[in-house]
Every structure is written in C-alpha cells, then in structure tokens.
C-alpha cells in the first residue's frame, strides 16, 4: 500500500520549482561530494527531493536513507531510472550507490535523515513561511482536531491543505495518505503546491514517529497543539515518558512559534509545565473536561456547560479564556472527547490569528471528518441516525458508544469486528464492551489479513458471551462486511442509531494478504437510500 499511496502522492508536486544548485546545498548542509564527484556535484542543480525511489521525479535529488530494514542505497538504480540526477547518502551507502548507478554524482552526510527536512524546505523555497501552519499531536483526536482546523482556516483564508491519516489534500486534489505524517520532501512539496495555488493555510497531524524521524524538520509551525497521551506505540518509544519526550520535541522553537496544550491528563500537564519552564515558546493551557474546585486554576482556557443535543447530535459548550474571553461554541460531533478536540482547535485558531466569530461559525459546520463519527443519515422522524466511526480499541469503543448512547432515544445497534494479525487480546475485550453498551450487535469482519476470519469472530463472540451467554440480540454475518452494514441499517428504526466501527475512512479491506477496495461510508449510504429514499 505504501508504494501505491506514494504513486498517488506524485501529483502533489509544485509545477514550477526554481532549481537549487547542489553546491549551495552542499555548503549549507555540510554535504561532502564523494571522491571524484566534486566537479559534477558543483555544476548540477536539482528541482526537488525524494527519499523513496517510487516517489522520485526527473531532476530530483534522491536521498538514500539507512532504514530499519533496508538501506535506501539499494534502490538507487530505480531512483535514477525515475530521473534522479544526484544522490545523497551516508558512508554506508556510498559503495552501493556507486554500484547501482555508476556516474551519478554522490554526496554524503553522516546522518542524512537529520538534514533531509531542512534541505527539502530549502529546495522547495521554504513554502511554510508563506502559509499559516498548524500541527496537532497526541494519541487520540489528531485527525478530528485537524479537520476542525481545516474548516476554520478555510473560512479564515479561503483554503487549507490537509496532511494526516486520512488524506493528503491540496485544493481540489486529494489522495490517500500512506501514513499519519509523510516524509519531509512530500510535506514540503505539498506546501509548495499550496503556495502556487494560492491556498493560504496548512493543517497537519504530527505523529511521534514523524517527530523522532525528523519528518517535520524544516518547518516552524505557527501553532502546534497537543490533545492527550494514552498507552500506544510503546514498541517504538519503550516507555510512556519516552513517548511524551518524543512529542515534546515539537513544542520547541525549532518547530513552533506557539503551543496549545490540553492539560486534561497528567502528560499534558507535564508537557505544559516543561514548555513554560523552558520559556522559549508561549503556551496556552486548555482544560476541556470538568474538574472540581477553581476551574481556572492551572489553566488558561477552560470549558463549561457542555451539553449534548439529541436532535442534531451537536454538542454545545462555553470556552472561557484569558482576559475574560467567553466563546459560546457548538461542535458537530457528540461526546466529551470531541469537546476536547473542538476546544483545542478553537484556541489554536485564535492563536493563528482567526477571529472568534469566524472560528465558531466554521466549527459548527465542520461535519464531515471522514470516518470519525461521520453521519451518513440524521434522525428526522423517518430515518434513524447512521454513523461510520474508527473506534478499534476497547477504550475507544467504550468512549464512542457512551457518546452515541447520549444521542439515541431508541436502540443502539453496533456493526463491528476486529483486526487480523494484530493484538489478539483486544478481540474479546471489544466484544465484551460492545455487549455491555449496545442493544443489538452485528458481528462481522474488519481486516482479517492472513488469519481465518471465523476464528477472529469467534474470539469477539467469546467476549460477547461474558455479558450475554445466550447471545441475545447478537447476529453474526459470515459473508461480507457490506452485508453486515446493510443488516445494521435494516434493523434501524427512526429512534435508533446504527454505528459501524473499526475501519473509519479506510479505503481497503485487507483479506488473505490482498487489499480489496472497500469503504463503509458509501455502503451505508446506499443501504440508507435503499431503505428510506434518496439523501440530500
Ligand atoms: C518505523 C518507521 O517509521 N519506518 C519507516 C521507515 O521504514 P524503514 O526504515 O524500515 O525503511 P526501509 O523499508 O528499511 O527502507 C529504507 C529506505 O529505502 C527507501 N526505499 C524502500 C523501498 C523502495 O522500493 N524504494 C526506496 O527508496 C525507503 O523510502 C527508505 O527511505 O521509512 C520508510 C520510508 O519513509 C517508512 O515507510 C517507514 O514507515 C513504516 C511504513 C511505518 O509503518 N511507519 C509507522 C510506524 C509510522 O510512521 N507511523 C506513524 C504513526 C502512526 C500512528 O500515530 O498511529 C505515522 O506517521 O504514520
Ligand atoms: N480527544 C480524544 N480523546 C480520546 N479519544 C478520542 C479523542 N478524539 C477522538 N477519540 C477517539 O479516537 C478515535 C480516533 O480519533 P482520531 O482519528 O481523531 O484520532 P487520531 O489521533 O487521529 O488517531 P489515529 O491516528 O488512530 O487516526 C475516534 O474514533 C474516537 O473514538
């Protein structure tokens, strides 16, 4: 999928990137021409940068990075065939590059990953300096918050690029994203294209991997935001403290001019404290969740009066800020977690220079975060509420179902399954939590991958049985996920809500090592229209 996605991202290049002399790059980033390549290197210019052979265009510098599994140097022949005119690598890569592409000028640096971000920014002429830029990090809520910011910044400046888990989007062009935060050259190119097309802002998701692997180097954001920190990615960061330390690197002057940090959990409070102590980046602390006692203590912004509306599934709240700022806002997604996302987006927008009225109005209409509490149909007396969501861990399922219960006068119907080739322990846990919180369950496949789908469903049902030994109100669909989504809609009455969880925006179903094109939203939409007639 990675190469496929990079192929689609190929279109996200500026049309007229003025050339940069290699000699200038060599001087600025302390790159050393390989012996014999001094002359060639000093006379060449490049029009772009890439770190992946499948993502290289004519006239570009191919940066052959040492990877976790392979050395990028092994792909030099492919990169040169795609048009690379020079290669930057480390000492370990030089010999391989020489063998793969004799005659192609080579430059070296002891740690090419550490320079590729600033180097790409230089080659694409520092596009971030011409945009209003925001980045959101944290374990949960990055995608949702970044889409709220997209809506707000678009209202403020007429356009915004989006780079995150769901898509890479510049203007009308949107492609599937290979990961949460793309490699630095892809990001710099997208921003250069945005500048060319007059799109004035950028809303990004920043993963901790990206921060550690220097994918964001070369960009100083106007505002970065932190949602929360929960247990995740410990295979990469080893400890929660290591995970926070990785995120903390984004809250430094090298990466941002302003920090907005949710202090609802101990990790956010620690990050805010550290950033304030360092005194290098101004910090706004945001508290979205209710606390006992003095609401303003230890924070700069706080939320009161969060109320969920049954009719339009919106959540209203009041955000209080410095100097008596009082913002009455409405977030189009249910649940307190989305109040956190919305409050963070509002404060980030204020610090990015957006007026409160513009921000509030845009946020209220930011409905369609793909696959995140995405409403396909809305309760209207005839139709029930039909939702696509991404919750795929027991904790997320718990939060999601509690939020949806608040907007459901009738029965709550959940269509769900669990992943193959991933954490097996969570399967019965997902079954158990869903059996506890929902009325009707339709158990189906998610991404079975190389596993037998029946065994995965059995594990989910084992958890369901802990709560409902006789499987009362539980159906199992063994044919195809789309059939389960249709069955969920079939069961849904006007007072009910049906939610399909686990795959969100994902455009593929991974089965028996194949990527089969499949997305829950259009299937649910079709089922809704077949049952209740065309949607507007
Ligand atoms: C741990 C990690 O981040 N690994 C990334 C790393 O892979 P790697 O070091 O193993 O690369 P490799 O396969 O050894 O290849 C070495 C070099 O050869 C290049 N190459 C490789 C193959 C080829 O055909 N041509 C080519 O030029 C690669 O671009 C790379 O530069 O460099 C690759 C190239 O950029 C990334 O694709 C790869 O991300 C992998 C796919 C990945 O799964 N990353 C995850 C962990 C990740 O980054 N996740 C975060 C957070 C997700 C979250 O928050 O949930 C994200 O931002 O998505
Ligand atoms: N602020 C939040 N706190 C806790 N959970 C949240 C929050 N926002 C969203 N969630 C839950 O996490 C799921 C993923 O949300 P979202 O995609 O916005 O987060 P993310 O950080 O981008 O995660 P991912 O990288 O997995 O996409 C949602 O379906 C919801 O269940």
TrEMBL record:
Keywords: ATP-binding, Cell cycle, Cell division, Cell shape, Cell wall biogenesis/degradation, Cytoplasm, Ligase, Magnesium, Nucleotide-binding, Peptidoglycan synthesis. Its cofactor is Mg(2+). One of its GO terms (molecular function) is acid-amino acid ligase activity. Carboxylation is probably crucial for Mg(2+) binding and, consequently, for the gamma-phosphate positioning of ATP. Residues 371-504 form the Mur ligase C-terminal domain. InterPro entries: Mur-like_cat_sf, Mur_ligase_C, Mur_ligase_C_dom_sf, Mur_ligase_cen, Mur_ligase_N, MurE/MurF_N, UDP-N-AcMur-Glu-dNH2Pim_ligase. It holds the Pfam family Mur_ligase_M. The modification N6-carboxylysine is found at residue 247. The keyword Transferase does not apply. One of its GO terms (cellular component) is cytoplasm. Belongs to the MurCDEF family. MurE subfamily. Catalyzes the addition of an amino acid to the nucleotide precursor UDP-N-acetylmuramoyl-L-alanyl-D-glutamate (UMAG) in the biosynthesis of bacterial cell-wall peptidoglycan. This is UDP-N-acetylmuramyl-tripeptide synthetase.
């Amino acid at each position: 999928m990675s190469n496929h996605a990079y192929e689609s991202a190929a279109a996200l290049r500026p049309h007229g990137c003025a050339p940069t002399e290699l000699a200038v790059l060599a001087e600025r980033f302390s790159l050393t021409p390989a012996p014999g390549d001094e002359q060639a290197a000093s006379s060449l210019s490049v029009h772009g940068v890439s770190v992946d052979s499948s993502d290289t265009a004519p006239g570009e510098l191919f940066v052959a990075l040492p990877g976790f599994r392979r050395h990028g140097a092994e792909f030099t022949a492919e990169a040169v065939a795609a048009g690379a005119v020079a290669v930057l690598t480390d000492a370990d890569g030089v010999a391989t590059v020489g063998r793969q592409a004799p005659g192609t000028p080579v430059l070296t640096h002891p740690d090419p990953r550490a320079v590729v971000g600033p180097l790409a920014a230089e080659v694409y002429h520092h596009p971030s300096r011409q945009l209003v830029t925001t980045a959101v990090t944290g374990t949960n809520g990055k995608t949702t918050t970044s889409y709220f910011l997209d809506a707000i910044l678009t209202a403020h400046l007429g356009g915004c690029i989006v780079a995150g888990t769901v898509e890479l989007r510049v203007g009308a062009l949107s492609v599937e994203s290979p990961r949460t935060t793309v490699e630095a050259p892809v990001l710099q190119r997208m921003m250069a294209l945005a500048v060319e097309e007059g799109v004035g802002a950028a809303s990004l998701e920043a993963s901790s991997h990206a921060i550690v692997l220097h994918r964001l180097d070369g960009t100083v954001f106007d505002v970065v935001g932190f949602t929360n920190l929960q247990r995740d990615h410990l295979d990469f960061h080893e400890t929660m403290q290591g995970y926070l330390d990785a995120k903390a690197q984004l809250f430094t002057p090298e990466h941002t001019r302003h920090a907005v940090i949710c202090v609802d959990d101990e990790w956010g409070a620690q990050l805010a404290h550290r950033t304030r102590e360092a005194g290098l980046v101004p910090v706004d602390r945001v508290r979205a969740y209710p606390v006992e006692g003095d609401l303003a203590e230890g924070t700069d912004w706080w939320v009161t009066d969060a109320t969920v509306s049954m009719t339009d599934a919106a959540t209203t709240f009041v955000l209080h800020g410095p100097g008596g700022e009082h913002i009455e806002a409405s977030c189009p997604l249910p649940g307190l977690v989305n109040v956190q996302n919305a409050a963070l987006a509002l404060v980030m927008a204020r610090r990015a220079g957006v007026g409160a009225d513009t921000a509030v109005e845009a946020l209220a209409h930011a409905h369609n975060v793909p696959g995140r509490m995405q409403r396909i149909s809305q309760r209207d007396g005839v139709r029930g509420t039909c939702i696509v969501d991404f919750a795929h861990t027991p904790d997320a399922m718990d939060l999601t179902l509690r939020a949806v219960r608040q907007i459901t006068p009738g029965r709550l119907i959940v269509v769900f399954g669990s992943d193959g080739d991933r954490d097996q322990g969570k399967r019965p846990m997902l079954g158990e939590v869903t059996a506890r919180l929902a009325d009707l369950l339709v158990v189906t496949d998610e991404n079975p991958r190389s596993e037998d789908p029946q065994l995965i469903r059995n594990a989910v049902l084992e958890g369901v049985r802990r709560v409902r030994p006789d499987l009362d109100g539980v159906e199992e669909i063994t044919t195809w996920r789309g059939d389960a989504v249709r069955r969920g809609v079939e069961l849904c009455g006007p007072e009910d809500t049906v939610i399909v969880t686990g795959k969100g925006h994902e455009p593929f179903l991974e089965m028996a090592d194949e990527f089969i094109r499949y997305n829950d939203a259009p299937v649910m939409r079709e089922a809704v229209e077949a049952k209740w007639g065309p949607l507007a």
